[in-house]
Amino acid sequence: MSSKIKILVPVKRVIDAALKPRINKTKTGIESQGVKFSINPFDDIAVEEACKIRKNNKGLVESIHAVTIGSTKAKEVLRTALARGADTSTLIEINEDKQIEPLAVSKILKKIVEKEGSNFVILGKQAIDDDSNQVGQMLAGLLGWSQATNAAKIIIENDNLIKVEREIDGGVEVIEAPLPIVITTDLRLNEPKFIKLPMMMKAKKKPLGVLKPEDLNVEINDRLETISLDVPPTRKAGVMVKNVDELISKLKELEKQA
């Protein structure tokens, strides 16, 4: 294999993580009009980690390519990735009102991996809008590559061996796998640095290509239908009790009501 690592970082444009999502009037999705959008936080961590890997392993990383799927408005998240340190980027353009499912996303990313000659894919474990947590695993399956999910630490052992630490209940799991590999990021992996204005300005001069799914011979078929969305019911307020006897009495009362 090549002694160089070519990193692909998929990113997604989502409603800003600081906002509380609202269900639209038709109850078929999240209200997207008049709200702020930004890069998916888990994907931002992935971009930061890709840049850290290059910085900490001089001469090992040949390139970092960012890709997103969305309308022309999604170019803003590619600019964020470019400002953070990605070299080039690609927008896979679809209609703004089109919701693309994880399997179709994975098929498109597979084509981009092949087009760019990537051997290392790092992306967020999930997007905060649909919380599917499926794309990384599906992509690794389609490619037949190694995979490591929910990475809390990534160590490049050499040009063909990656060590990933994952937080699990009661400890840390360590995985070693060869390239090529797909890694999904957890929140503890790093904290993305603030992007200064000069970096955003430089990002505007970096390559940003535009393709459509049909350019990659990928058909987007809807396999799922959202029937309706609704907010969770309001939880009842708790009751303070003075002693154990009162607690037991309350529990028996609730048991009768059930």
Automatic annotation (TrEMBL):
Keywords: Electron transport, Mitochondrion, Transport. Binds 1 AMP per subunit. Binds 1 FAD per dimer. Coiled coil: none annotated. It is found in: Mitochondrion matrix. It comes from the Eukaryota. GO terms for biological process: amino acid catabolic process; fatty acid beta-oxidation using acyl-CoA dehydrogenase. The keyword Transport applies. Pfam families: ETF (PF01012). InterPro entries: ET-Flavoprotein_bsu_CS, ETF_a/b_N, ETF_b, ETF_beta_N, Rossmann-like_a/b/a_fold. CDD domains: ETF_beta. Gene3D superfamilies: HUPs. GO terms for molecular function: electron transfer activity. GO terms for cellular component: mitochondrial matrix. Its cofactor is AMP; FAD. Its main location: mitochondrion. Residues 27-220 form the Electron transfer flavoprotein alpha/beta-subunit N-terminal domain. Heterodimer of an alpha and a beta subunit. Belongs to the ETF beta-subunit/FixA family. The electron transfer flavoprotein serves as a specific electron acceptor for several dehydrogenases, including five acyl-CoA dehydrogenases, glutaryl-CoA and sarcosine dehydrogenase. It transfers the electrons to the main mitochondrial respiratory chain via ETF-ubiquinone oxidoreductase (ETF dehydrogenase). This is Probable electron transfer flavoprotein subunit beta.
